[in-house]
Amino acid sequence: MSWKIAVLLWLMEIHPPLQPPKLLDQVRDKIKVKHYSIRTETQYIHWIKRFIPVHDKRHPRDLGATEVAAFLTHLATAGSVSASTQIGYDITCFAH
Questions:
Q1: Residues in CB range of 52: below 8 A, 6 or more apart
Q2: What is the pTM of this model?
Q3: CATH homologous superfamily of domain 19-94?
Q4: pLDDT tens digits, the chain, 96 residues: what are they?
């Protein structure tokens, strides 16, 4: 094995290929870019964590307005969340 290949293999061990950021990390990054408060960030993450399991842990990019409406209906009927609370949350804005 040549020294060039050995160095390349060594570098690959030290610096593995970068993985794309996970969904919630992407959301946090976007919230920071928009200069939202930490409280807003916390709430958005909370609602996203509630949204995903309701739809069998499918990625939000694969979900649309129908699933958001179903989630809001679920919150109103089973989650005891008022309609005025639902209006403030548009969790799909971070999926695109």
A1: 58, 60
A2: 0.60
A3: Tyrosine recombinase, N-terminal domain (1.10.150.130)
A4: 677 777 777 766 766 666 788 889 999 999 999 999 999 999 989 988 888 888 888 888 888 888 888 888 887 787 666 665 555 555 445 544
